[in-house]
Structures are given as structure tokens and as C-alpha cells.
């Protein structure tokens, strides 16, 4: 909803709140009908309390249009799968027991709407009376409100809801249960009483073979969370169809939810689907599938396992090596070496060699630092870091300005773990050259890990940097002052002299100090002496 729609909606709600004049005024009725149209078009569940109050005040001939708007908003624009929200918003509506008798004169949809609102009222007598009337209707829209009352703290009301539920345990209500699927979890999770039997009776309707076409049809337009629920529900009665549908989904969590059901299939299909899941593009799916491979069937997946040895995810490589070790003795290091020599290299190949090899394998990994494939470059950096390779550390700084973000992140992580004064000085040289985006990344590392001397970088950027970087550097002055109060090491003399020179150069250049930084600027002068 844009700002204009919101403004119109607020104006419409205010129009309804105005009291009717004591004399007949056709213009006032027209205004209120126009306001109702606006609310009908743009209103949500938050408008219902105001509409209900208005419905109690209007003349009889205008009440039905108001209730129709309430009905449309309640059943189609209210998150009925959130009981706490429904209670919080509607429990204080001003219902009286005698109101309930009046509601029956409305058409079915509108009568059910008002009775449903009354069924969540704080007054137990109102709730009970509304629920007794609701037992005479069987439209799908009231299903959530029957489910709410199954957990009612008044035993008599809860008993009525349990008596009503069986009339909705029919295949024609499958779509309504799918729409309100979260309430089935809510039923099972209720702590006040055991409602599992009610939840199970509904699940029996959903898992019946007659419901399968509805479940499969609903999956096509379902939201991800709803799709996972539908897949699991379908898997209870038809795991084959559920798995086929899940494998066609682009949502990896849908596939994750179906993996435990693969073992329920016949042997041939189980092996086929497990192999397909092991080759899935999603890493979590591949990893979870490994856990469901039967121990006695490892040999059937040997070719797939040999591919997974080169997986980019370390948990998958490690789990695969463990599985393969069960059947026979493998020389995994030799497998990785041969793959590199044959130039059949993936990032996981380089990482796998680093995990299983020794110092002599560094010579095979180093060439990939020059690769045009950024995935191989970052894998080589991570692999050489495992060997604590000094050649890598000596030539790591330039990777902070690499064109690929993955390489830059890998370089940053390794630098932070092994930062020393030589690396700090090398990064300072890079700050004085290169493009602005690279300077930003390097400057952030210096300010975080450069110790006392990082003030040199801040002042240098203020004096010589581009405007965008200079504005960034000013903001870091208070952070630096706060940080040095916790540093108990004497500053390097060279750093302090250089910082003092830059500070006075900024003063001589008469650069404007941002107003909010002025107090910290004076404090900085005292610190530098």
C-alpha cells in the first residue's frame, strides 16, 4: 500500500467515526458509503474493530453493507493462522449475548463472520453462544475459529468445538485445511491440553488418497513454507509422488524435508532417488543425503562418492572420505594429486589436497594463485594457509584489491588471522594508491587491526583522500580515541611523529572539522601532544 492509499484509508476510517447528525442528511450517508468502498478496497484486519463499532451505530438498512466489508476483510485479508494476533485484535469487541440472536437474520456469510468474531470474545457466555450457533453452519471459512476453540480454557466451550469438528472431517474441506496448515502445528504444540487426537484426525483427511490431487495442485502455487508442509503430508500416503514433486522444486528446503521418506520406497527407486539427491546443486541437500545412504549399499554409489571428494563443502568431502574408507583403503591424497596433474581441477580438489596432503603438495597448489578462475584462487589461498605457507603471506596484500569479492574476502580473513607490522605497512601503501572501493576495504582492516598507528591512516585519508573516503575517516576519529584508551602499549615513535605531522598539516590547510567531531578533534590534539 502506497502513502496515498494509506492516507485515503485513514481518512475513510475517520469519516466512519464521526457521529451521525440527529436529523436525516443524505450527504452524510453518501460520505459513509464512499468511505466503506475505500476500506473495502484497501483495508486490512486492523480496520475491523472500527468497522464493528460503526456497525452498532448505523441504521438497520446500512448495517448489512458494513458487515459485508468486515466479512471480506476477516476471511481474506486476516492472518487467521496466527491465533494470538486474532485474539489480541478482536477479543475486546463489544459483544452482548443478545447480539448473537440478531446476527442470525443476516445472510450466511455475514452471519458466520459476526459469529466467528464473537467466538474469540473475552466473555465466555458470548463465546459459547456464538459457537453453538456456528455448529449450524458448515462453510470452510469458519474452520480456523473451530480450531481455536478446541483449545478453549473453558471445558464446556472446548467440548462444543470437539463436537463440531467431525462435520468438517471431509474431503471437501481439504483446501481450507491446506490454507490454514499452520494451525495444525499449533494444535500439536498447545501446552494446556493434549490436542494431538484432533490434529491427527485432520491429518487423516489430508493423507487420504482422495486428497492427493488437491495436495499436488496446491503445491504449484504454494509458498515455500506451505509447500514443505504439503510435501510432508503427501509423503505420508504417497512418498513416490511427494519425492518426484520435491525434486522438481527449486526450494532446497523442500528437498531436505523429503530425504527421510526416500527409504520408504522400493529398493530400485530408493537407490535412484538417493543418487539424484547426492548430485543436487544444493550443498545442504547433498550433505543430508549422505547421512541416509544405507551402510551396506556404499559400493553402489562409488562413482558419485568419487565426485563428492571434490565438493566445495568441507563437511561433504570429509563425510565422503569417511564413507569410502569403510569399504576399502583409499589413498585420497593420490586421487587429488592425479586430478591436478590431469588438469581435472575443481576448488574442492585443491582444498581436498590441502586437507589430506603434506608440505610437498604446496608446489601443486601455488600455481592456482595465478588462475583466471576466482574460485580456484580463493581455494588455493585457503589451502596454502592450512600449510602456513610464508610465500602466501608475503604476497597476500595485493589480493585485497582483486576484482572478485570471494578472493578479497578470503584474503581479508587470512590477513586478519596473521596480521603483523609488515602487512600493516603494505596496506598503508595500498591506501595511498588504488581505487576508492579497494581503499575502503583496506582502510576498515587497518582501523580495526592497525593498533595505535591506525590514526596515521585516518589523518592521511582526511588530508589526501577523496571526499567520500575523507568523510568516512572523520567518523573513525571518536572510535579510535575510544580504542586507544584500552591499549596499554606505548605507540611506535615513527607512527606518533607521522600522526602529529599529518594533524598539523590538516590544521594549516584549514580543513573544516565536522561539528559533531570538534570535541574529539581537540581531544586528539592532546593525545598526539
Q: Count of DSSP E strands?
A: 0
Structural class: mainly alpha
Q: Level of helix content?
A: 55-70%
Query: What is the mean predicted local confidence, pLDDT?
Result: 85
Q: Which outline best applies? A: flat
Separation of termini? 58 Å
Radius of gyration: 34 Å
Number of helices: 33
Residue windows where pLDDT falls under 50 for at least 5 positions = none
Largest sheet: none
Task: Write down the oligomeric state.
Answer: single chain
Fold and architecture overview:
Helix content is 67%, strand content 0%. The relative contact order is 0.03. The mean pLDDT is 85. Helix 3 packs antiparallel against helix 4 and helix 8 runs parallel beside helix 10 (155-164). The chain has helices at residues 3-17, 26-42, 48-57, 60-76, 83-90, 97-103, 108-118, 124-134, 143-150, 155-164, 174-179, 182-189, 196-207, 212-221, 224-237, 239-247, 252-258, 267-278, 283-290, 302-308, 314-327, 332-341, 347-356, 362-365, 374-386, 390-394, 405-417, 421-431, 436-449, 454-464, 467-484, 493-508, 518-528. It starts with a helix and ends with a helix. It is an all-alpha fold and 529 residues long. It is built from 33 helices and no strands. It is flat, with a radius of gyration of 34 Å.
